[in-house]
Each structure stands twice: as C-alpha cells, then as structure tokens.
Amino acid sequence: MVISASIVRGCALSFGLLCAAQVSAETFTAASPDQRNRIEVTLTDKGLTYAVSRNGKAVIAPSSLGLTLQNRPPFGTAIGAGGFTLVDQKTTSGADQFTLPVGKVKSVNARYNQTEFTYRAATGDVKTLKLIVRAYDDGVALRYVIPKQDGVAAFDLQDEMTAFNFAADYDCWGLNQGRFENSFEGEHDAIKASQMRVFHLFQAPVVCDTGEAAFAIAESNLKAYPGAYYTALSDASYGVKVVLTPRKDNDPGARFNTRAARIDATNGFETPWRVIMLGDRPGNLIESNLINALGEPSVVKDTSWIKPGLSAWDWWNGNDFPLPAPHNANGQKSGMNTATYKAYTDFAAELGLEYILIDEGWSAGSTVEPNPAADVTTPKPEMDMAEIIRYAKSKGVGVWIWLQWQQLDNQMDEALATYERWGIKGIKVDFLNRNDQEIMDYYQRLLTKTAQHKLMVDLHGAFPPAGLTRTYPHYMTQEGVLGAENNKWSRRITAHHNIMLAYTRGLLGPMDYTQGGFRHATPAEFPSKQSFINPYVMTTRGAALAMYVVYESPFGMVSDSPPAYRKADGSWEDGVDFIKGVPASWDETRFVAGEIGQSVVIARRSGKDWYIGAMTDDQAREVTVPLGFLGDGAFSAKLWQDGVTISTLNVSDARVDKSGSVRLKLAANGGAVVKISPAGKKK
User: Fold this and answer.
1) DSSP states of 313-340
2) In a domain, 302, yes or no
3) Average model confidence (pLDDT) for the chain?
4) What is the pLDDT at residue 17?
C-alpha cells in the first residue's frame, strides 16, 4: 500500500485525531498493486476532494465529495471549527477472489489497496461519515459509509456531491437520456467534454479517452439506493457529477431531487461504489471485471441449476411462419398456441439450443401494461403449458416465459411457486423502465425469491448492470441496450452502433441484444425491406455470427423464425453450424484489436477452445489478429468470413499456433468469427 500525507500549517496528531481547524490541506494517496493507478483524497478548509491519475498523468482533477442530507448539514463541504474533521484513517490490502457460474470469465482475482477515512461532524445528529477508496489494477472506486449512530434510525438523502472533474477537454462517449424514467436504451454518441450540459442526463457508462489513458464512469453494488445519472458540472470546468434518481413519491414535476432516498440507518448504511474503470485504450476496458468485483458476494449457495445457453424466441420474428408437420395438423397456423411452441422446440433441439422463450401473450389478461386483472398463473386456453413443457423436456430443451413486472408483482409468491412446479427454467420480466430507490426494492425481492424457486432471470427495461450478477448469479442477462428489436421500427441499429456497444454498454455486464437476425439488407436497401414481422438487419451474416462472441449474454437469443435458418433446398443457411456450437458463457475474455466506433476484435475461451469475433462499421477492413493468447502446441482454426453477398460466408480451415496470426477480411457493415481448437481434437 502506498500512502502519503502532506499537512500544511502543521497540526498535532494524537491517537488518530487531527485538529482540522488548523489544517490547510491533508492529502492521502492510495496506489493500485501495479502502481499505475492512484487516487488522492484531500481535506481542506473548503471541503473534501479526490483526484485520479494513471501512469503519473492526471485523469480526474480534484473533484468534490460528499452527501447532501435533507434538513441536515451536508457532509463534505465544511472542514474545521463547526465543520467536520478526520478522526481516523486505516489502510489495508486485499483481493476480491471468486468464481462465476456464468459470465465473461470463470474466475476473478481483483487485487486492491484500500484506505478508509472516518470523519466527524461538529454538529447535527448524523455525526460520523466514512469514505472508502480502493485502487485496483483496472480502476479505482470510492463509496460513503454512514455507521450506526445513536438516535439516528433514518434520514432523507437529497443527493450526492460526487463529481468527476476532467483534467482536460476529453473525447467522450455517452448516452444522454434527458429524463429519469426511461428504458435505458439509446446510442452512445461521441461528445467533447466541453459540449456536455447541465440539462444532460447520461446513464452509465460515460467513457472518455484522454489521449494517454481511457476511463469509464459507472457504479456497482447498487441496492436500497437510487441509481445514478451524470450531468455536466455547473461551473466552467470540464466533467460530470452524480445526479441521483428521485423517488416516485417526490413532486413529479421536479427536474432534480427534492428527495432521492429514504435511508434506513438502524444498522448503518453504505452507498454504492462510484467506479472509474481505467486502461491505456478504450478497448482495454472490455477485459475489466471491476463492476463484478465490487458487487456483493453471491447469496446463492447451490448454483448447479444455473445453466447458460441460447434460446429460440418468438417475438422478434413476429411468430409468423408455416408450421412444419406434424404440428400443422388440421391447418394449424403459427401463433400463441401449443403447436407453435412444439415447433420451436424441435428447432431448438435440432440446433442444440438449450431453451425456448415464450414471450408476451401466453397468460390470461397478458398485456404490456400493469393490468390488475391479469392472471400470470393461468395460461390462455390455446396454450397447454404442461404439454409444452413436457414435450420440451423430452427433447432436452428448457422453457422460459415472459412477464410484465407489475403483473408479476401482484402475484409474485404464488406465481414463482407455480412456475417452479411447472418446470419453468427462467423468466423474462419486462417494462421496468426505472432506477429509483423503490424499484431497487423490487429487484431485491424478485432476485431473492427467484433464487429460492430456482428460476433464472432476464430483465428488460433494466438499468445498466451494477454488480448484481455477482450477488445473484441466476440474473443471467438484461436489456438496457438499444438492441435488435429496433430494426422492426427504426434505422438506428447500424454497424457503428453495434460496435459502440462493445466499448460502452458492454463494459458493465451482460446485455440481451437479441442477436440472430438472418435476413440481411444493405443500409441502402433497408428502408424498402423494413418490416415489423420477420424484420431485416443492416449488417452481414459475418456480423450476425460475431455478435455471439463480441456480446456477453449467458442467456442469448436465436431471434429469427425457424425457416430463416434454412435455404430453399432445406439445408442450413451459412453460419448455422457456428451457432450450433458457440458457447453462451466463457472462461476467459481478451480484447485483441479495434478502435472505438470503428471496429472491434474480441477473443473468448471456453475450455480448451478459443472463439474470435470481429466486427466493422460501414468501412470494409482487413484485420490481423495475433494469436499470442493461445497455449503451447498446434491448433486447428475454422474461419467464417463475409462472402460474395451480404447473406453468404466464406468458410476455411487453417493450422495455427501462438506465434502466428489470422487475417480476417470484413465487408462493410460486416464481421467474421474464428473457432480455434487444439489440433487433433474431435469437432
């Protein structure tokens, strides 16, 4: 642990108590184990600040810290007589070591150095505040702790004073939602720090490139607390500050908080971690496990029932396709009926997919609105759920079902017990569209109770990942991403957007982008082919495959209708053989090459096999992929690259080793994948 302290206009130090009334500045520096990342905390007569550097170069300039309590003095603004003083400081070193049943890596060993500061206010009933800072090799983090205090059972939190003051006018990328209640979807647009405004509300992550380092601002261990947005600083400096989402019981017309949270302080309270992921380049952030490392340890002891996999899915394609025999007996048409989901089951079994997902419309009164009359324990008459589940089980396929969150909440205990009894494997809960303190309570209840009933979870309209997948490993994936569904009604899902996701939203955790679209059109053709039913995508077949490697989602979609994966002669379409074998969870992840917004190449390992996914924007590229991540010995590689048309592939084989490389040719809006296995291994 590297700790330095500088005290101006000396002060007596006795038994850890600093007479801060005489102190002009006290600075403590914590360094990461590799010494590259440093966080400085300074106490002055103007307040509490911190600063961050990487490789000796400033990343975050001195920035404010503190909490604003309603009807109480704020913590962090006034030091000295009548303010608050530093009374204790402890330094420790440690490591977050854990394994994950699903995710982008199998095991994590995140070493850190930590300093814990205790401050004491001169007045008020909430007198003690702790600040904890950590420095990891891939970033830094800080949080506030209010210990248990006599006579303080609860208090109202108005906001945080946590700011991120940029040391220069950085190139940044952010998703400005502009309002608190939303579906957490959108484009992560390029923006200079000087262009950020106080009326912006950026969701996590805010990614920036200093020219010498890259960083991403996010949060982790979010529980019983409002989620954060980030808005520009109100003075002339560059940077952003935390804005907490107000409670729903606030004035609905209020632009900013009158009350963000009601804090139960009976046993003390911890805020989420404010996280700054750090790397030399934006792509290096892709390898970081910092968000998970800062999450609470798993509360699920037995994880044997948590199984990653890909799923056939009905909603994206519109459930409109000719049913094959024997499911088309008596002229049966596709739709929300038993025969259709038996057909999906056959398709899933033939491809080796682990699941089918039955989306909106299967239960009595099912709608996308709250609808108190809905009954999520009773299937519609056309849906023989017992028969669907029995048939799927006989084929080795599990069943997931869709739910609107308030409808589920009305019957949660009864419904979850019912689904467990039926043999449902997981639930997709939709239209949450909030990150206030009250919805956090719902997340906690839902994730706790689904674990008790051994049900995996996929949340849609969900806020960006904030460490919950470590605590609740059955929380397999989530939305909070502008994904493939938008091809049905917009032109927003461009190749550039898809690449940006890897460098922004994808940094935080799994995302249910719902890949698998196998109907392709060029951007010029797309307007004439766009359709809500059986939609097209504006990217190539190679890009469609690459998404299964580039995007992390232990519960992933194969979104198109079954006929879309067949050629006219009944044989499989190009690339289906790759989907048949691609894992949904990984042991290791490496960023290999690429530039933010232009291209990305990621390698992931499952067992002894490596998979490479490459994607480009609207520019055709050739990329050389060094194979230094391979182990010793010879390997066999199979390459799927863009073909002569947007819907075809060139497939080839090669012998490779760790001293070599593979060269991939990517068409405009295209991509490629590679599978590398030890030579001689049976495929």
Assistant:
1) ESTTTTS-SPPPTTTTGGGPPSSSSHHH
2) no
3) 93
4) 24
Q: Are residues 136 and 256 in the same domain?
A: yes
d(CA 271, CA 252): 24
The runs of H, that is alpha helices, within 261-411 are 290-293, 338-351, 385-394, 405-410
Structure tokens at 388: 């669907």
Neighbours of 3 (CB within 10 A): 12
The CATH number of the domain where 675 resides is what?
A: 2.60.40.1180
- Is position 306 within any domain? no
Does residue 175 lie in a domain region? yes
Beta bridge partners of 244: 228
Name the token pair of 322.
Answer: 């000719």
For residue 12, is pLDDT > 60? no
Q: What is the pLDDT of residues 195-241, one digit of tens each?
A: 999 999 999 999 999 999 999 999 999 999 999 999 999 887 999 99
DSSP per-residue letters across 504-532:
TGGGTS----------B--TTTHHHH--S
Mean pLDDT, to the nearest integer, of 18-38? 74
Q: Give the pLDDT of residue 15.
A: 17
Instruction: Examine the domain organization and report whether 288 and 419 are in the same domain.
Output: no
**What CA–CA distance (Å, rounded) separates 647 from 645?**
5
Q: Is 637 helix (H, G, I), strand (E, B) or coil?
A: strand
Residues 361 and 402 in one domain: yes
Rounded to whole angstroms, how far apart are CA atoms 176 and 203? 7
Beta bridge partners of 401: 358, 427
In terms of Cα–Cα distance, which of 98, 100, 95, 99 is closest to 110?
Answer: 95
E-state strands within 417-491: 426-430, 456-459, 475-478
Q: Is residue 163 domain-shared with residue 254, that is, in the same domain?
A: yes
Same domain, 254 and 191: yes
Query: Parallel, antiparallel, or unpaired for β 475-478 and 456-459?
Result: parallel
- Across 22-26, 382-386, 496-500, 607-611, least confident range: 22-26
User: Do 557 and 540 share a structural domain?
Assistant: no
Residues 592 and 447 in one domain: no
Residue 303 within any structural domain of the chain = no
Residue 93 has pLDDT above 80, yes or no: yes
Q: Which range of residues forms the domain containing residue 393?
A: 312-481+509-516+551-584
Predicted TM-score of the model (pTM):
0.94
Structural domain count of the chain: 3
For residue 66, what is the domain's CATH number? 2.70.98.10
Looking at residue 233, what DSSP letter applies? -
Determine the Cα angle at 228 with ends 225 and 232, to 5°: 150
Query: How many degrees, rounded to 5, is the angle at CA 415 between CA 413 and CA 416?
Result: 70
Q: Compute the residue count for the chain.
A: 683
Q: What is the CATH number of the domain that holds 344?
A: 3.20.20.70
- Residue type at position 620: A
Task: Encode pLDDT of 401-418 as tens digits.
Answer: 999 999 999 999 999 999
Task: Give the pLDDT score at 412.
Answer: 99
